[in-house]
TrEMBL record:
GO terms for molecular function: DNA binding; DNA-binding transcription factor activity. It holds the Pfam family GntR. Keywords: DNA-binding, Transcription, Transcription regulation. The keyword Endoplasmic reticulum does not apply. This is GntR family transcriptional regulator. Residues 1-53 form the HTH gntR-type domain. InterPro entries: GntR_C, TF_FadR/GntR_C, Tscrpt_reg_HTH_GntR, WH-like_DNA-bd_sf, WH_DNA-bd_sf.
Length: 92
């Protein structure tokens, strides 16, 4: 994320579609996914805007959540590795 679109800026479906030479449909789908990830905000009858940056409390909560979830996810992934996958990691 390089902040080409400033937080709070309007995001134009038609503009993005034109820039990437695609129809508006995949842009809408991408924006819906970005909305689910908290990166854009959909406003009824106004379209999308870039989500505001996290404040200090938001960052604290984010890192606390990652501190809890990421070790558990790594443990689950490691437990599902095949012997061949383990060998590939060891060889690298």
């Amino acid at each position: 994320m390089d902040h080409r679109i400033e937080p709070g800026a309007e995001v134009s479906i038609d503009g993005i579609a034109r820039d990437f030479d695609v129809s508006p449909t995949p842009v809408r789908e991408a924006l819906a996914r970005l909305e689910s990830e908290g990166l854009v905000v959909k406003r009824p009858l106004r379209g999308y805007t870039a989500a505001p940056l996290f404040d200090a409390e938001g960052l604290r909560k984010l890192f606390e959540m990652r501190r809890i979830l990421e070790p558990a996810a790594a443990g689950l992934a490691a437990g599902r590795m095949t012997p061949a996958a383990v060998a590939a990691l060891v060889d690298d």
